[in-house]
Write a structure and sequence with these properties.
The chain is mainly α. The protein is 60% helix and 4% strand. It has 14 helices and three strands. A hairpin with a 4-residue loop joins strand 1 (160-161) and strand 2 (166-170). Helix 1 packs antiparallel against helix 2 (22-41) and helix 10 (241-254) crosses helix 13. 24% of the residues are buried.
């Protein structure tokens, strides 16, 4: 009989051997819990009894529940990793996931801000109060570094190296990376640390960004600040912290920064994740060509008069 202990051992393996985050581990546990329940319903008593057809039928069942392609692909990834673990531990002699292809995902290009929109956003801060200066520092740093919002809000003072203009952060899987931030973000951070943070500090803490109660800034709190500032700057796009991250990467590649360097700054483990920004850059070049090249303009004028 398939036991829960194999799942628990697998989750421990993910943490110790693979170094995956708690959030990823919880996703695996949830997805595999449904898979193991399905196997019990099929009267599967040993892992060697699982055939490719069982997994294919399970994936079809997931589609039948209304899950989209991305969700089904995530479930299959968890199942595939689980069976690889079972092979490593010699708990089964065959991998039923072999020859099962992942569902094809259509990757929509994420919307980004233009350089002009980012400049308008960053120039809209007043720095009249401690909160204003803190808000400016957070948004300036987010765009300068391309951090995830969780990484931004987890920063401690010791992670900031202003004289050398870089920060140290921990990303997915608790992996540490060094990210340059440039002179402008360093200057704003210096003003925040000297003028604003001492006013916000209510108790001893090393957390970099604090709310008005002296507690660490929350994701929800930062999201509200960003939305409000976007409105003040007259930005009509639905702005989010991740959209600033997309903008950071897109603007770097548009200006010729090597894809491997962008991958390192973003903390992507797989360069294929970063490659979406090259597609976005090509779309930008196509749009630029259509708006500036004389032949493209001539064709547009001809089409409009025909």
């Amino acid at each position: 009989m398939i036991k829960e202990r194999e799942l628990e051992s697998f989750l421990t393996y993910l943490t110790i051997d693979r170094g995956l985050s708690l959030n990823t581990k919880e996703n695996y546990a949830r997805d595999l819990g449904g898979y193991l329940t399905y196997l019990e319903q099929q009267s599967i008593e040993h892992f060697n009894q699982i055939k490719r057809e069982h997994i294919q039928t399970y994936l079809i069942e997931l589609y039948g529940r209304g899950l989209n392609t991305k969700s089904v692909a995530r479930h299959l990834s968890a199942i595939r990793t689980f069976h690889q673990y079972l092979m490593i531990e010699r708990l089964c002699s065959q991998n039923p996931c072999d020859l099962i292809e992942s569902p094809k995902l259509s990757r929509d290009l994420p919307e980004v801000l233009s350089v002009a929109e980012v400049e308008r956003l960053l120039e809209s801060f007043t720095e009249e109060t401690a909160a204003d200066l803190r808000n400016h520092a957070m948004v300036e740093l987010l765009y300068a570094s391309g951090l995830r919002v969780s990484e931004l809000l987890a920063l401690n003072i010791v992670d900031i190296h202003l004289s050398m203009q870089f920060i140290k952060c921990r990303g997915k899987g608790d992996k540490e990376r060094i990210v340059p931030i440039g002179e402008v973000a360093s200057d704003v951070l210096t003003r925040y640390l000297e003028k604003a943070r001492p006013q916000l500090l209510k108790k001893s803490t090393d957390v970099l960004f604090l709310n008005r109660f002296g507690d660490p800034m929350s994701r929800q709190g930062f999201f509200k600040i960003l939305k409000k500032q976007a409105q003040m700057a007259g930005i009509t796009k639905n702005l989010s912290p991740h959209k600033l991250r997309h903008s950071f990467a897109t603007h770097l590649i548009e200006n010729g920064v090597d894809l491997r360097l962008v991958q390192e700054m973003l903390g992507h483990s797989d360069i294929s994740t970063t490659q979406i920004y090259t597609h976005m850059s090509k779309e930008h070049l196509k749009e630029l060509f259509e708006h500036t090249h004389p032949r493209a303009q001539a064709l547009k004028e001809r089409d409009s008069t025909s």
